[in-house]
Design a protein that fits this description.
By secondary structure, this protein is α+β, with helices and mostly antiparallel strands. 29% of the residues lie in helices and 27% in strands. It is globular.
Length: 147
């Protein structure tokens, strides 16, 4: 199978103007910053898309009522094994329904009570290159946690 290349744009929370301004004439990919929003591709694009999926609450996106996970709303719940198991199932279901570029996906959840954090690790392989590993680590602070 030949490697597919996916293209997308940086999410709005990244500083596109600063990235655009920092390009130089010696840039090996001078066209990646053409236009207002810089392009991204492959692994970086998939990581950003998975992060957006994790941080979107179902019903938040217009015309996509099933897109998202219950991750952000679960931080308000007591972190019992049952709640973590339900959240893990919810994330795996959302990833399998919305992210065809990932295969062999696994999700690990860990609570850090001292820091009021929920750590999320998503691992798997890229469907277009099964030997290429995918890893995304993120932490979600609980309400009232110092960031």
């Amino acid at each position: 199978m030949s490697k597919a290349t996916y293209y997308g744009f940086n999410p709005p929370f990244l500083n596109a103007v600063q990235t655009f301004a920092n390009t130089s004439q010696s840039d090996p990919e001078p066209n990646r910053y053409r236009g207002i929003l810089p392009r991204q591709s492959d692994l970086r694009l998939v990581k950003n898309d998975v992060l957006q999926l994790l941080l979107t609450i179902p019903g938040e996106r217009v015309q996509r009522p099933r897109f998202g996970t219950t991750l952000r709303s679960t931080v308000f719940e007591p972190m019992t094994d049952e709640v973590l198991s339900d959240l893990r199932t919810n994330i795996l279901t959302a990833l399998s329904a919305n992210e065809p570029r990932l295969i062999n996906v696994d999700v690990q959840l860990e609570t850090v009570p001292a820091d009021l954090l929920l750590k999320v690790a998503v691992t798997g392989n890229m469907s277009y290159a099964p030997t290429e590993q995918f890893l995304l680590n993120t932490s979600i602070p609980a309400p009232g946690a110092a960031i």
